[in-house]
Amino acid sequence: MATTLTPEEAIERAKRLQEDRINAVRAVAEARQRLVDVQEETARELADLQARIAERVADAERDDVRAYNAAQSAGWSADELRKIGLPEPEKKARVRRRAARKPAASRTTPEPAETSADEGTAAG
Known about the structure:
Blueprint: H1 7-73, H2 78-84, H3 116-123
């Protein structure tokens, strides 16, 4: 004959099953949080690395432009350097030019006169 569970025993078994389920959810939630933390940390590391790489490339490009300009100052023309196999640098140094002063607008541009009446008579 099967033993009948008391209400307390049934509740205790249900609590154990619930606790196992809750522990499984807790493990998933903790793993997800670790995943988010690692993703955020690696995103910061990647951004830092990309910034350092960009800085190194920019430094090398500036050095390339300086060396090219020095070769031109030493008497080499851009055409001669190109024939040797040294074309102009990809990132040529930008020369800042002064912007031409624009004359101050003393008056606003007048709006055209209304021509809808004229257009109607011209078409008919």
